[in-house]
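W.,

You were right to be curious about this one. When I first looked at the sequence I had no strong expectations either way, so I just let the prediction run and decided to look at it fresh. Below is the sequence, 620 residues in total, followed by the output.
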Amino acid sequence: MSAAAESIEIEAVRESPVRHALRRLSFYLRRNWRYYLLWFVAVVIYSVIFNAIPMMVGRAVDGLIDPGVPAEVVVRRCWILFGLALVGGVFRFYTRQLVFDAAREVEYEIRNDLFGHLQKQPQSFYFKWRTGELMSRCVNDLNSVRLLLGPGLLSVAQSPILFIGAFAFMSTYSVKLATLMVIPYPLFIVISRFIGARLFRRSLAAQESLASMSNLVQESIAGIGVVKAYAMEGDRAARFAEANDHLRDRQLKLVRAGAAMPAMTGLLPAAGLGMALYVGLDMIAAGTLKPGALFAFTIYARMLTFPTMMMGYSVSLLQRGASAMQRIDEVMSIEPSIADHTESVQLDDLSGEIEFRGLNFAYGDYAREPALADISLKVPAGSSLGVVGPVGSGKSTLASLIPRIYEVESGQLFIGGVGVNRLEIERLRTSIAMVPQDSFLFSMPIRSNIAYGLPEDATEAEIHLAARRAQLAGDIEDLPEGYDTLVGERGVMLSGGQRQRTALARALALDPKILILDDTLSSVDAETERRIQTELSNVFAGRTVVVVASRVNSVQGLDQIVVLDEGRIVERGRHADLLALGGLYAGLAAEQEAESKDGVGAPITPDAVPSDDVLAGEFV
């Protein structure tokens, strides 16, 4: 069965969250109807055999008691009983294998769809959701859904069939005794409704506690360097202990509620058997019932005990699975705020021209002040733009809007003369390379990190060339395993400058129309930065370049420079013009010049950075 790659769309209707979640789950069940059809046939056949065995036992017992029944008949009945048990065992195996395979298939499809859905979400989505919370829903909650569709569905669907079949077979002996046997079973509905609601609430609470603890563990491991630097191991341990205690308390409450269900439901077959024996013995004494029939009734009661107890256990699985599916559905119901327009423009060749027209942007409704205000700016194709300003002035935000990492209102940002919201997202982002401030590396060999985004048939020569252009080749040669060296999680095995140059090499290996460098060389020494910029000027001439920098010397040779302050453009022009203006840019330049003389850093002269320099980046 193929993976479920397509998205599941559910109409927006007014219904409870759990009902909405189960309706989404039904899409996956219908998608795997062949599994469930075969399983249902196997269940019916197994139920017939299951109920035929006690009847055959009763007939064998009657044959042993009745001297008029020949021995060969009794032996034949025993062989039939053996055959029924053997065939029943085979079908019992398949009733489990089929439904468990179907549950694994549905789990596989939901996992693919959930991960694909998370991949479509914009970056703003992850500002609101904690990593550990999402991981818990992708792993723990999904496992609970699988148990719902496996053991839970097996018991819920199979047990009623077994009960109905047992009543039918017992009725061939005595309708009166069969009725007495099943009288206690309707109490199961009352018990399940009483305990089920409590199980759902406690299961949901336990899953939320587990998600909180998962997030705490994830944060502690990811920030282990900070934890150790501040000697806060004790604090993290105390926080973990508190979260662990909270989880334990909620799970114990769940266990206590779940344990009551099998214990109470296990009494139902015993109660039915007690009434049947009391009346059945009188019927045997009166000669209206054979001993073998009563013996068969005891076997029915014994065989129905386990399904009944499993029904009680399954109620717990159902409630856990339903609450887990509700949590998964909560994530999958969030439509990506950034998606392809219904009337997207399909362009074979995207021009590198960038234009902002009175752009305003804020990070959601909770932002007190806009991050950018009234930004009007045009960057011709093939030219370079420098963006400087104080910390928090909106430089990185401006760069992030170009590849549409955040949503902007229509009519405020144009790429190649087309509104950015009308461009296909994949086409837009494959035309842009951006290296953000945080140079993220994946936990894989440095070769794979550089080749990230390249086609699978990329050559070693392309990777090595990108490394040389980023002044990284020499560092790689010093690594233990060269290009095969694992960089560790988030590139922890590399220095800050090496991580930045690896991310830069990853961008240089691409062939984008627009290159964005967001303060990427801040951790690189001045001499290495000079060599990188000189190399880049020969590689990316003629491409549109946007350079976000905190150092003035990184942008002084670019075609135009804008200075941001509190989200607004306060100055614009070329390097010499801005120095002559004597404003904020000149102040930044003077301050950095003084720091340079004190040995903080060495300036880069205009001769080292031609006017058509292009500093490159990537989109991560």
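Here's what jumped out at me. The two ends are 33 Å apart (CA to CA). And, maybe more interesting for your project: The first helix runs from residue 17 to 31.

Coffee later to discuss?

I.
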